[in-house]
Amino acid sequence: MAVNRKPRAGRSARPKANPVRGEATLTLAGVEYVLRPTSEAAFAIEEELGGSMLLLVQRAGSVALSYRELGTIAGAFIRAGAAPDDKLTANINDDALADLIYAEGQVKVLGILSAVMANVVNGGYTPQGEPRAVAETP
Description:
Blueprint: E1 24-28, E2 31-35, H1 39-49, H2 53-61, H3 67-81, H4 87-90, H5 94-104, H6 106-122
Antiparallel strand pairs: 1-2
Helix pairs in contact: 1-3, 2-6, 3-5, 3-6
């Protein structure tokens, strides 16, 4: 039976993923995390893993990413999606995420992360992850 837990006093509820912003939800160990595709997250992933986001998307499509790489990717997108007052999520550990991904299942998690990475390389969002305005045609 599912328990409906309310946030403790002084803590806000976790934000929900907004697909209009290209966000997705990743559930690890029963906790839902918002994955938000921002330029800051993309730059952190590229710097940490030493490759372009496009190359990482290609590797994801070939199921060629390690657990640690998946933890790094998930961590950057989770930190980008953290609520401003959620210091615990904002400081989430990539190695701990890799362990949780191992427990959850690499293929399941890879599908979700691949969708968010595809949103990064396909564009249509501001660096902060908001949808870009569409110009009206005359």
